[in-house]
Design a protein that fits this description.
CATH architecture of one domain: 3-Layer(aba) Sandwich
Distance between the termini: 9 Å
CATH topology of one domain: Rossmann fold
Number of strands: 9
Strand order of the largest sheet: 3-2-1-4-5-7-6
Number of helices: 8
Order of helices and strands: EHEHEEHEHEEEEHHHH
Helix content: 25-40%
């Protein structure tokens, strides 16, 4: 499949899709450091620009359009909003690319909360929008730990399928490979994923193996809870800590935060993948990414469908 990537970030989604045998023909992000990371590790086909300044008609045709559209415009007080609403500029661009280019499929990733906004009214409106653009939608709330990622990261995956596609040409969502209770292979623990890394203050050759000095103060709040070495990592974060910084997850040794490299490994980036930018930017790039291994599973299904066309 030829894939057009929007809101690409550092490229976790794109890398997995590419590793599965698909081709990313065009990508975009507004963040300079993310684009530099992408160029260094994936390819120079990414464009650094504000997506609102891009002419949709100039984009190449593709089999799949992929990306995680932001949902800031979907406020509870704005359930009757129109696509043209200025607060939905990024979603609007994603929608118009789909509507104008009519790819066979689109792939969108979003936070779990999008399902509960307005008691479900927002996701129903999104489905209606894409229905009007010519697509049926498949929606899954997934826990990444169920797919071999050492992290209990829950995300919403939306697969759009053009209405003329039928039968064997329809997307089959990947089957779970892991489980908490051992019915399948048990969830992968954080210690088994990153336990081989030395302390960051010990001389080593690992890329980006440095960590934030943001002190650990345990309290019942996301990013400030103790990490259990025998369970998957909590969600790797991209959000700020209220003061502009990034709240990196505590290491299970209780003495420091996870390094950039450890965070990237939990997001299943390869150890050869180098992040470019200041420390906070690197943490944020990783936290915003789709785990590479999960993207690969989605990519394998697109590869299968591509072979049928």
């Amino acid at each position: 499949m030829k894939i057009l990537s929007l809101f690409s970030g550092a490229g976790g989604l794109d890398l997995g899709l590419q590793q599965a045998g698909n081709e990313i023909i065009w990508a975009n992000d507004i963040d300079k450091s993310s684009v530099e990371t992408y160029k260094k590790n994936i390819g120079t086909h990414i464009v650094h620009a504000d997506i609102k300044d891009i002419n949709i008609s100039s984009l190449p045709d593709a089999d799949v359009v992929a990306g995680g559209f932001p949902c800031q415009g979907f406020s509870l007080a704005n359930l009757q909003r129109k696509i043209e609403d200025d607060r939905n500029q990024l979603y609007r661009f994603f929608y118009y690319v789909i509507k104008g280019k009519q790819p066979m499929f689109f792939l969108a990733e979003n936070v779990r909360g999008i399902l509960s906004l307005g008691s479900g009214a927002v996701i129903k409106k999104i489905i209606s929008d894409f229905e009007n653009a010519g697509y049926k939608t498949l929606i899954r709330l997934v826990n990444m730990a169920d797919y071999g990622i050492p992290q209990t990261r829950q995300r919403v995956i939306i697969i759009g399928q053009r209405k003329d596609l039928v039968g064997e040409n329809l997307f089959c969502f990947p089957q779970k490979t892991n489980s908490k209770d051992g019915e399948l292979t048990r969830w992968i623990s954080i210690k088994s994923a990153i336990g081989h890394y030395p302390e960051p203050d010990v001389q080593n050759n690992y890329l980006n193996h440095v960590c934030s000095s943001y002190k650990i103060e345990y309290r019942n709040f996301t990013g400030h809870r103790a990490t259990d070495p025998d369970k998957p990592s909590p969600t790797i974060l991209a959000r700020g800590n209220g003061k502009g910084g990034v709240c990196a997850i505590p290491h299970y040794n209780g003495k420091r935060r996870l390094t950039i490299r450890e965070s990237a490994t939990i997001q299943t980036f390869p150890e050869s993948f180098e992040f470019i930018g200041q420390m906070n930017s690197c943490y944020r790039q990783i936290g915003n990414a789709v785990p590479v291994k999960f993207a690969f599973l989605l990519g394998k299904e697109f590869k299968r469908l591509g072979a049928l066309t």
